[in-house]
Amino acid sequence: MKQAIKINKADTVLAEPILLEAKDISLRRYGRSVLKKVSLEIKEGDFVTIIGPNGAGKSTLLSCLMGLLRPHEGKIIRSPKLKIAYVPQRLHLENSMPIDVKSFIKLGRNMTTESKAYSDFILKQTEIERLWSRQLNRLSFGELQRVFLARALLQEPNLLVLDEPMQNLDVSGELKLYKLLGDLYQQRRRAVHEKHVRGPLSVLMVSHELHMVMAVTTKVFCLFHHVCCSGTPKEVAQNAAFKEVYGDDMVKLMKVYSHAHNHIHQADEESTRA
Amino acid sequence: MHDFLVSLIAFPPFFAETFILHGLLAGLLVSLMAGPMGCFVVWRRMAYFGESLSHSALLGLGLGLLFGLNLNIAVFIVCFLFASLLTYLRERRILAIDTLLGILAHASLAAGLLLISFMELPAYTLTSYLFGDILLIQNSDLWLLGAASIIVLTLLLYNWSSFILISINKELAQAEGLPVYAMELLFMFLITVVVATSIRFVGILLITSMLIIPAAGARQISKSPKMMALLSIALSMMATLAGFSLSILYDLATAPAIVVCATLLFALLTFVGKLKLKLLR
User: Fold this and answer.
1) Which of A102, B85, B173, B182 has its CA 20 to 30 A from that of A52?
2) Using a CB-CB distance cutoff of 8 angstroms, which residues of chain B are in contact with residue A90?
């Protein structure tokens, strides 16, 4: 029954512009299905958010997509030019190791940024220049998160993976981070033309914060062990399966937020129609 | 080489005896390995793990004595199996890690004690294994410690940044493509080498303190992982020299004297660290 997938070079040849694709992956843990025939694809330039209740298998799915866990069934296909950088869910640091931000960022072997312009750009965007010589374990959670984010981005990934980045942040912290992510995503698209980087940045994010997700996300996957529904935020909000998982109130909330940035009254119209 | 080292340290008159010199050299070699390894034990919150590992060494001794094996090899094999078993059980999440360690450590300690009590050895033998005995150190032990230090320091330096990243965030290290599982095994191997080769000198019950106390002291005034590792070696060597001298001058047990000296240094550095923070404010 166990059909371990192998990610070798033969599998990875892919037509552009799909960066990463999961085909019918299933995974069991302690005899229970965590993932059931999950399929999703991430194209170049996508901003994909996976939403779903606690214990829906979101983090497990991320681990499978990044190649940290092997699904029992199904296939993961990676584009040869895929380069992932990851911001983990738990950033908790022991006070036991003295290390400053600069050393931490430079640690490891993936630091391939050649372009000074790009690294300056990232450091400026994430506002960590002034944290540069601070000790890592003296940072606030929000600062720490920006440091991890900068470290990830300096690896010049074309896919940035974030696991619940809003966790443990207060509302203003959430807003800031979300704005930062949106800006980075947009600016890296623009930066392509300014020759800072090689390609656009795609983002794959797991989040609970539905209302925060709506502003930038291009594609939403609602996960509850299987993919309940997917599409643009608007499509998902109107989907019956989504309603089943989250209930009517959330559907209304989603509509308000997905339109809040242009016309609030339009959202009201839609919710009366629904 | 040996004669040179002997003449180098021989100038204080009470170090002139060969067995004392051997003991001192052994202590300095233990410090050289235990300093940086202890930092990792502190960074990765593995203090209790080190403790359990050294307890399992007694089972190794018991089995070695029972089957007439080379004791160093018996201890090394048992410790390594123990470390691997622990790593495996931790991944399987059968029980909370501290419960698991408690069970395995004390079970192997008890089994080791039982085995040794069958051997009808003179009482001092057991004590010398539990608390270390410089009289036990022979030429061959020094060579073994020297080789172990070279292996441990080389592998540690070669994999330094990977080990640091894994200590900071294992998930991140894995996502960035480090072979985390293999690195964990290598780490288990290194800590086993340190524990198995050092117990002759410091004893089963005190080896953990040689790992942790100097590292914890170094933490108080360090600004980078490298600085902490180097300071940890320095503190460990200072404690060894001081404890050793005291034990000879006042006829005290050597390893306990070293540990007490290390603890005093730790207390001093903690005070200095706090003072520095206050002055900076």
Assistant:
1) B173
2) 169, 171
Domain presence at residue B275: no
Residues of B whose CB is below 8 A from A99:
164, 168, 224-225
User: What pLDDT, in 10s, does the model give residues B242-281?
Assistant: 999 999 889 888 899 999 999 999 999 999 988 887 887 6
Judge whether A166 and A209 are in contact, CB under 8 Å.
yes
Q: Which domain holds residue B104?
A: 16-208
CA-nearest residue to A95 within chain B is B43
How far A233 CA lies from chain B's nearest CA (Å)? 28
Q: What is the pLDDT of residue A179?
A: 79
Is B249 part of any domain?
A: no
**Chain B contact for A113 (CB, 8 A cutoff):** no
Of the partner residues A107, A109, A155, the one whose CB lies closest to the CB of residue B164: A107
B180: nearest CA in chain A?
A68
pLDDT digits (tens, 9 = 90+) for A142-196: 888 889 988 888 888 888 999 888 777 777 777 777 777 777 777 766 655 555 4
Helix (H) or strand (E) holding A49: strand A47-51
Q: Answer yes or no: is B232 within a domain.
A: no
Could you tell me where the beta strands, DSSP code E, fall in A121-241? 159-163, 202-206, 219-224, 226-231
The answer to whether the bond into A80 is cis (omega within 30° of 0) is no
Question: Which residues of A fall within a CB distance of 8 Å from B167?
Answer: 97
**Residue A30 sits at the chain B interface (C-beta within 8 Å):** no
Q: What is the pLDDT of residues B149-208, one digit of tens each?
A: 999 999 999 999 999 999 998 888 888 888 988 998 899 999 999 999 998 888 888 899
Beta bridge pairs of residue A27: A35
Residues of chain A found within 8 Å of residue B158, distances taken between Cβ atoms: none
CATH of the domain at B65: 1.10.3470.10
Structural domain tally of chain B? 1
Provide the pLDDT for residue A194.
55
- Domain for residue B271, yes or no? no
Does B162 or A112 have the greater pLDDT score?
Answer: B162
List all residues of chain B from 219 to 258 with a beta carbon under 8 Å from chain A. 219, 222-225, 227-228
Alpha-carbon span A202 to A194, nearest angstrom: 18
CA dihedral B202, B206, B211, B215 (to 10 degrees): -110
Give domain limits for chain A. 9-231, 236-274
In the predicted structure, residue A218 carries a pLDDT above the cut 60:
yes
Q: What is the dihedral of CA B20, B24, B29, B30, to 10 degrees?
A: 100
CATH topology of domain A9-231: Rossmann fold (3.40.50)
Residue B10, phi then psi, degrees to nearest 5: -80, 0
pLDDT (0 to 100) of residue B163: 94
**Does A111 touch chain B if contact means CB atoms closer than 8 Å?**
no
Closest alpha carbon within chain A to B163: A108
